[in-house]
Design goal:
- The termini are far apart.
- A 5-stranded mixed β-sheet has the order 1-2-3-4-5.
- The protein is globular and about 30 Å long.
- The longest helix has 16 residues, at about 55-70.
- The chain has 3 helices and 5 strands.
- By secondary structure, it is an alpha/beta fold.
- Strand 1 (about 1-10) and strand 2 form a beta hairpin.
- It has helices spanning about 25-40, 55-70, 95-105; strands at about 1-10, 10-20, 45-55, 75-80, 95.
- It has a single domain, classed as Transcription Regulator spoIIAA (2-Layer Sandwich), CATH 3.30.750.
Length: about 110
């Protein structure tokens, strides 16, 4: 199961994930970000994975694809709250949301 909490702060969308991001739950996450990026016009995202307790290759690929989509729209996506061993080297990351706020200057 995947829970997605959204909060809009100072021009940025904070996307907090809890649970599992895997083959079964990726569509929910992908749809959420697609809606915010394409329909709402948001360009700055902080994805907090601190409470994500499992991610498979499908989840990693989905995050990488959304990162590419955001970059194509001249936006920025930052990952924060690493608590699991995943490889997202291309994406800028930090340990918490406060530091992510500092990295995105709008």
């Amino acid at each position: 199961m995947l829970t997605i909490n959204l909060e809009f702060i100072r021009g940025m969308l904070f996307v907090r994930l809890r649970g599992k991001l895997d083959q079964e739950t990726c569509k929910k996450f992908e749809s959420c970000l697609d809606d915010m990026l394409n329909n709402k016009g948001l360009k700055y995202f902080v994805i907090n994975i601190e409470e994500l307790n499992y991610i498979d290759d499908n989840g990693i690929n989905t995050i990488m694809n959304k990162y590419s989509d955001v970059i194509k729209k001249n936006g920025k996506l930052i990952i924060c709250g690493y608590n699991i061993d995943i490889k997202l080297n291309e994406i800028e990351h930090t340990n918490n949301e406060l530091n992510a706020l500092k990295l995105i200057s709008i």
